[in-house]
Amino acid sequence: MEQEFTGKKDYQLSEITVSASCPSNIALIKYWGKYDHQIPANPSISYTLQHCRTQTEMQFVPGEPFSVETWLAGKEEKKFAEKTEKYFYEIQKYLPWILDGKYIISTANTFPHSSGIASSASGFGAIAKCLMLLDEEFCGRHEEDFFLRKASFLARLGSGSACRSLYNGLVVWGQTDVVPGSSDQFAVPYPQEDIHPVFRHFNDWVLLIHEGQKSVSSTVGHGLMKHNPYAQRRFQEARENFSVLKSVLKSGDMEAFIALVEHEALTLHAMMMMSAPAFILMKTGTLEVISKIWKFRNETGLPLFFTLDAGANVHLLFPGNESADAIRTFIGAELLQHTQNQGVIKDEMKF
Question: How far, in Å, CA of 237 to CA of 250, rounded?
């Protein structure tokens, strides 16, 4: 499979600046645990967000000694430059020209750092798009399908979940018999014809329970799965959940969808608590919000539910339909008080 993405050896370089934008995403079936070369231990599926994005401009100067200079919102970020240089070395096989010059990369997010939005996903997605734009300039145009597939492949090597951000809607990463064409190497869109209309427009409001840096990074958390005694059963459960989700997405069964998504979120954090050493990323406010969501849903029957990333902040999910106004009112009256600074990021998934 990798051979498909091996770069051309003949190319003509020139100084050029390209730019690209890429959204973040939120996983429904979670990826937690990986093998070498960013291969996922289980398949995952995510919604791609609409408004939380990274905008990146990449200037390439050929003939200069290889180096990377990165700027985030106008501030030089040397640690990210070092990380990006290492990444470029790793993907040289697929873009043979990549070390033949100097890079100046300017990037900005439409959302705050450490907010529960996966900036590594949108960030490496945007970088991969820029690299593919450069590759087209130097080596010739690619068909759109190949462009996105290789960009997804390259993004994965920078940040696993980034590969899912190259497509809109529901996106699958990791080989599963449930989704034809799915792969561990890159992400693919979930078949549109198999998605009930009720799942095509969702709000995602992120409650900022904790706005600081996480106590344990996702990289460390993934690594701890290698020795987690429950890891193999978790990986198998994720695979089994794809079969359940396929039926749910086709039928429009919202109740079953909510149950699966919330279970996946809590299982992610259960794996953290059962690691050695164990760690807990949820805060008191996280649990209070979850409790209030369950109570609200039991009392009203309205489809407000949650998912969690590897952090304390809560993604509130609810359809963009006639019930949304009552749900928004409840969020403002009962849930915002549990955030650190009345903080909420309002996004949506629509396709």
Answer: 20
Taking alpha carbons only, the member of 80, 96, 77 closest to residue 158 is 80
* Torsional class of 274: left (φ above 0), alpha (ψ -120 to 50), beta (otherwise): alpha
- Structure tokens, 333: 């009256």
Tell me the DSSP string of 280-341: ----HHHHHHHHHHHHHHHHH----EEEE-SSS-EEEEEESSTTHHHHHHHIIIIIGGGSSS
Question: What residue type is 270 in one-letter code?
Answer: A
Question: Stretch 87-103: mean pLDDT, rounded?
Answer: 97
For residues 82 and 45, the answer to whether their CB atoms sit within 8 Å is no
Which residues are within 8 A (CB) of 241 and not within 5 positions of it... i.e. 6 or more apart?
29, 260, 264
DSSP state of 59: E
- The band of 115, judged by pLDDT with boundaries at 50, 70 and 90, is low
Distance between CA 347 and CA 206 in Å, rounded? 8
List the beta bridge partners of residue 315.
Answer: 206, 307
116-130, 157-171, 275-289, 336-350: segment of lowest average pLDDT = 116-130
Q: Which two tokens stand for residue 244?
A: 């359940």
For 126-171, the pLDDT digits (tens) are 999 999 999 999 999 899 999 999 999 999 999 999 999 999 999 9
Rounded to two decimals, what is the model's pTM?
Answer: 0.95
Among candidate residues 288, 307, 114, the one with its CA nearest the CA of residue 205: 307
Alpha carbon of 133 to those of 30, 149, 280: distances in Å? 30, 13, 41
* CB-count burial class (<10 Å; 0-12, 13-18, 19+) for 342: exposed
How far apart CA 307 and CA 202 sit, in angstroms, is 13
In DSSP terms, 319 is beta-bridged to 202
